[in-house]
């Protein structure tokens, strides 16, 4: 999810020739274009860091810092920024080097005004498209929210569909899925869409209940029932009367408590600890677990009769790794939420940070993503989340498995062979798009071509640096 574009195109021009700099500024200036100029490379870079422009025009030869050095720092800061290098002495070798290091173009002085204007017009068109995409993303986000859950993947749409169908009729529902997938949100959605929505919604975390107090927690107790019972206490089921109770991590209950729970589900009545009186309760029960209850039944750690009672209706929530297409929506949703919570004018996330999030496996699912973005939104000093704002464990490079084999099954013996095989697999996974493969691997396009043994200019790039229609 790239950062949301502003209403104006931002350009930074850096050139030690003040007269030429004024000429460039005059050529670029127009409505909806903000031009920042600097005769100092270092000050120009500070403007780039501050303004995060769409385009940087920088002279190749300057005192104190070359244009290639400035290019490297800009690409390291944000690869999405287009950089155009200017030079008074054109050479094919320097043009190829500039393009491979990330430059968008390489122009010879005196600058071709028409060519520079066309690039600005193209960027303005791209900016307009970006604003339209941002508007559509906002609309998509609004239309992809279902009771605090976000998603438009086929897997999540199926979950939403099942919740809508089940909610008006259920007595018991079993929610399954890995930790952090949003089972409690699904339970709240079931409650809100049920006839019992006006009643209470009470959650009991079964994994946090001490075994000796579990019965009292669920069913309540009367005064004097045990040491410390100084007054009558209402349990979870009575508190949820005429509403819904969520038994989170139901698989953690002991077998004895499972038997008592089964009786409540069958008879719809509870007995407080220490009381002979049975009390009727009208309550809908949602059980949630990340465990495989069928396997627990086989191992005699979960009652078979209780399992079938709970799983009359079962809804499984998919892990985030199986619905990666929802990741951009979830990112936008959480960034917007935390921006409001922390009162920060956050505009989005950089492309390289987005790529880093996209290639993570998310073992902690949506909860892990929420924690990552919550931390990033709190820690960032700018208005856009970048790689440095993300937790360290996400920034660590994944090591290449040196035991990787070739397609023929031969063991790769050198690091270069392993690196090339890994790169080819990444390239294949993105349909041969070398730009996307470089982003996925976290390397520059120049290094990608070096690994692949290609010394020519990137495909779709002419010797003068112009990109053709067929470029990646």
Q: Could you give a short description of this structure?
A:
With 472 residues, this protein is α/β, with parallel strands linked by helices.
Explain how this protein is built.
The model is unreliable at 1-5, 397-413 and 455-472 (pLDDT under 50). Strands 2-1-3-4-5 form a 5-stranded parallel β-sheet, sandwiched between helices. The chain is built from 19 helices and 16 strands. With 472 residues, it is an alpha/beta fold. It starts with 8 loop residues before the first strand and ends in a 21-residue tail after the last helix.
SSE layout:
Blueprint: E1 9-14, H1 18-28, E2 33-38, H2 41-51, E3 55-59, H3 67-77, E4 82-87, H4 92-100, E5 105-108, H5 113-143, E6 145-146, E7 149-150, H6 154-166, E8 172-176, H7 183-192, E9 201-205, H8 214-219, H9 236-239, E10 243-248, H10 255-267, E11 269-271, E12 278-280, E13 283-289, H11 293-298, H12 304-310, E14 314-316, H13 327-342, E15 348-349, H14 351-358, H15 365-379, E16 384-385, H16 392-395, H17 415-429, H18 434-441, H19 445-451
Parallel strand pairs: 1-2, 1-3, 3-4, 4-5, 8-13, 8-14, 9-10, 10-13, 15-16
Antiparallel strand pairs: 6-7, 11-12
């Amino acid at each position: 999810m790239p950062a949301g574009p502003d209403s104006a195109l931002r350009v930074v021009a850096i050139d030690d020739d003040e007269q030429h700099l004024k000429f460039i500024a005059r050529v670029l200036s127009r409505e909806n274009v903000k031009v920042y100029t600097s005769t100092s490379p270092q000050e120009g870079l500070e403007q780039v860091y501050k303004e995060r422009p769409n385009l940087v025009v920088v002279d190749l030869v300057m005192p104190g810092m070359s244009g290639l050095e400035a290019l490297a720092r800009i690409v390291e800061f944000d690869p999405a920024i287009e950089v155009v290098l200017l030079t008074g002495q054109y050479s094919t070798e320097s043009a190829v080097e500039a393009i491979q290091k990330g430059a968008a173009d390489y122009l010879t002085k005196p600058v071709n005004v028409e060519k520079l204007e066309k690039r600005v017009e193209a960027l303005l068109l791209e900016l307009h498209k970006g604003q339209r995409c941002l508007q559509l993303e906002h609309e998509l986000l609004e239309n992809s929210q279902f009771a605090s859950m976000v998603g438009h993947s086929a897997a999540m749409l199926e979950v939403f569909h099942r919740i809508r169908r089940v909610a008006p009729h259920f007595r018991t529902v079993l929610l399954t899925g890995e930790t952090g997938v949003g089972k409690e949100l699904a339970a709240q959605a079931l409650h809100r869409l049920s006839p019992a929505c006006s009643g209470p919604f009470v959650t009991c975390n079964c994994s946090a209940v001490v075994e000796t107090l579990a019965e009292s927690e669920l069913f309540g107790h009367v005064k004097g029932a045990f040491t410390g019972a100084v007054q009558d206490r209402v349990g979870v089921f009575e508190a949820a009367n005429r509403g819904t109770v969520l038994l989170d991590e139901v698989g953690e209950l002991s077998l004895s408590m499972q038997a008592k729970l089964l009786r409540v589900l069958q008879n719809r009545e509870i007995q407080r600890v220490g009381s002979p009186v049975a009390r009727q309760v009208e309550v809908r029960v949602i059980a949630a677990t990340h465990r495989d209850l069928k396997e627990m039944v086989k191992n005699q750690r979960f009652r078979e009769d209780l399992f079938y009672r709970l799983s009359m209706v079962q809804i499984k929530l998919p892990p985030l790794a199986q619905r990666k297409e929802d990741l951009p929506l979830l990112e936008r949703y959480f960034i917007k939420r935390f921006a409001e919570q922390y009162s920060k004018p956050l505009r989005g996330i950089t492309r390289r940070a987005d790529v880093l999030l996209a290639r993570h496996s998310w073992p902690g699912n949506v909860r892990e993503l929420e924690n990552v973005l919550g931390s990033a939104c709190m820690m960032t000093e700018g208005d856009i989340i970048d790689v440095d704002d993300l937790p360290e464990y996400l920034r660590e490079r994944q090591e290449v498995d040196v035991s990787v084999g070739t397609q023929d099954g031969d063991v790769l013996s050198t690091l270069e062979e392993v690196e090339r095989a890994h790169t080819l697999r990444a390239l294949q996974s993105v349909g041969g798009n070398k730009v996307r493969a470089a982003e996925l691997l976290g390397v520059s396009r120049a290094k990608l071509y070096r690994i692949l043994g290609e010394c020519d200019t990137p495909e779709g790039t002419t010797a003068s640096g112009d990109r053709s229609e067929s470029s990646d």
